């Protein structure tokens, strides 16, 4: 398979990380699906516009190649040394690798059964936002925003918008690559390549998308936390979407992710 030319779909509801951190960070979200599909009602409805959000632009529709090309850049990222009250991994080193490792941890979504996308998004907000910024007003906005995102995502999948998800249904995401935009003492900005999957039930096909987002984190309260500080003028210069194993992943400058044991 190769790349098929066409307009990409901006899936604000896929990759639950983005719906939460949109409130806190500057990012640009660009997606490309492995298998082209037509847009479905509700699939592209955006959450409230975050500050300084870059304008999404159309990309070529992406199809992962049948042959494997080994990534030329790999990075073993450190693990966190502790966990937040909700179980999210925290306590990352004060280093560029530690900042990227925090973003990798924050990108991990696994909504299935009685664990909703809203639950996952709230846990990300609670674990990776500085406590000094977690006001009652902001927390309420996050609660409302994550509930809307959960409902619209499930509706786009053809599921009931409340209650446990059916057997075999899931919404998942995980970072698979990164490219540093800039780093300075106490702040790191990077493009993150996130692989997101949706499955509406046991007998339903799994839909796979890749999302590129520009995110910044700052060293706050002894750990890396999301920050609304602008990434840089280069945040709009998103690398091309390509999955690990595609030669284009290397030419776009992505680094594949390994996590230290």
Q: How would you portray this structure in words?
A:
This protein has helices at 17-21, 96-107, 117-128, 136-156, 247-251; strands spanning 30-33, 74-77, 82-83, 89-90, 109-112, 169-184, 187-200, 206-220, 223-226, 255-259. The protein has 261 residues and is α+β, with helices and mostly antiparallel strands. The strands form two sheets. Strands 1, 2, 5, 6, 7, 8, 9 and 10 form an eight-stranded mixed sheet that branches. A two-stranded antiparallel ribbon has the order 3-4. Helix 3 (117-128) runs antiparallel to helix 4.
Strand content: 25-35%
Shape: globular
How much helicity do the residues have?
A: 10-25%
Average pLDDT taken over every residue: 78
Task: Produce the secondary structure layout.
Elements: H1 17-21, E1 30-33, E2 74-77, E3 82-83, E4 89-90, H2 96-107, E5 109-112, H3 117-128, H4 136-156, E6 169-184, E7 187-200, E8 206-220, E9 223-226, H5 247-251, E10 255-259
Parallel strand pairs: 2-10
Antiparallel strand pairs: 1-8, 3-4, 5-6, 6-7, 6-10, 7-8, 8-9
Region (Disordered): 31-57
Organism: Kitasatospora terrestris
Protein name: Integral membrane protein
Condensed summary:
The chain is of the alpha+beta class and 261 residues long. 21% of the residues lie in helices and 27% in strands.
